[in-house]
Design brief:
The structure is a single chain. By secondary structure, this protein is mostly helical. It contains 1 helix and no strands. The protein has one helix spanning 20-49. The termini are far apart. InterPro entries: Uroplakin-2 (IPR009952). Keywords: Membrane, Transmembrane, Transmembrane helix. One of its GO terms (biological process) is epithelial cell differentiation.
């Protein structure tokens, strides 16, 4: 039995670089979640007044 030869840590590509599309999608999802939470709070406040 033998193991694979060792590699330098720098030579291993992790593939975790952020692309522009990932950043845009994350921002859009964050903003839409904030709008949904604010809308829920406003709906609860207006519903309690009646």
């Amino acid at each position: 039995m033998s193991t694979l030869p060792r590699r330098n840590m720098e030579s291993i590509g992790l593939g975790m670089a952020r692309t522009g599309g990932m950043v845009v999608i994350t921002v859009l999802l964050s903003v839409s979640m904030f709008v949904l939470v604010v809308g829920l709070i406003v709906t609860l406040i207006l519903g309690a007044q009646k």
